Amino acid sequence: MHLGSFNVLFWVALVFIRWMFCHGSNEFVSVFMEKRESFDNNLPLTSACYNSEIENTSPIRCSFQCLASHAVCNGILFNQERKTCKLINCSPTHSALDFDPGRWTLFWKTTGMCKTGWSKHEEFCYYFNQTGDTWSNSKRMCEDNGGYLASIRTTEENSWIVDTFLPPWNYTLCSPNWWYCCEYWIGGNDLSLEGTFTWTSDNSTLGFINWYPPSEPDNNSDQDCLSICRDGHWADNPCERVWPYICKAPAI
Q1: In this structure, how many other beta carbons lie within 10 angstroms of the beta carbon of residue 143?
Q2: Which has the higher per-residue pLDDT, 169 or 33?
Q3: What is the pLDDT of residues 172-203, one digit of tens each?
Q4: What phi, psi does 228 have (nearest 5°)?
Q5: Taking the C-alpha atoms of 233, 239, 240 and 242 in order, what is their torsion angle to the nearest 10 degrees?
Q6: Which stretch is the leader sequence (predicted)?
Q7: Which letter does DSSP use for residue 211 in this model?
């Protein structure tokens, strides 16, 4: 690239950046943060919510301050009339805080992104592999891709996985020998201690459970690995069976 062309591009970029800073574009801020319109005109009264207050500023300047902050910064509150910004570290839920009305707009920091082919839910990313493998190989494949065989901690997460990944009966994915369930591997197992199921992600014991009634887990000695059925119920099964599997990883 010629020096003259570089200078032109440099000045175009500089003019664009200065224009954005002068106009305080909410659209530009939305690239980095998510606007929460339901929170408009509310201001948390709890002083512990705030890292700092910045005057004579713009939304984009304030968002950069939040993204670069060494302290915890979950979002910004911006008052257009006063050109004032507050960096916040708390989650401004209506159930937990009192509010003072005012012309404030909330921009909330996004919790991260997922790799191509993964689906985001809350603060995690999920990947559904339809090819199928044994439980051990499925575990290794998830780990090789920066995750782990999925742990399921809540009823809501369990329902989301079913609605997102587990289709109605599919003869390509489901063996006719297991018509009542159609399993997909997840990360629970009792390989270390028979009858005590833990998640492979952190070796924690199961909190939320959703066993297939009334017989699961049947705790047979060769059924050490946990699967989820297409209806959302769980079962313990021999780990060498070949089924599709679900990986999970923190959003990045």
Answers
A1: 15
A2: 33
A3: 656 555 545 678 999 999 888 888 899 998 88
A4: -115, 135
A5: 30
A6: 1-24
A7: B
Distance of CA 81 to the CA centre of its chain: 34
The tokens of 174 are what? 């489901």
User: Do 104 and 40 contact (CB within 8 A), yes or no?
Assistant: yes
Answer yes or no: CATH 3.50.4.10 is held by domain 23-109.
yes
Cβ count near 115 (within 10 Å): 13
Q: Which CATH number is 119-250 given?
A: 3.10.100.10
Please tell me the distance from the alpha carbon of residue 105 to that of residue 43, in angstroms, as a whole number: 9
Stated as kind and residue range, the H or E segment containing 225 is strand 225-228
Picking from 47, 42, 155, the residue whose alpha carbon sits closest to that of residue 101 is 42
pTM (global) more than 0.85: no
Q: Where are the domains of the chain?
A: 23-109, 119-250
Lookup: tokens for 41 = 């005109």
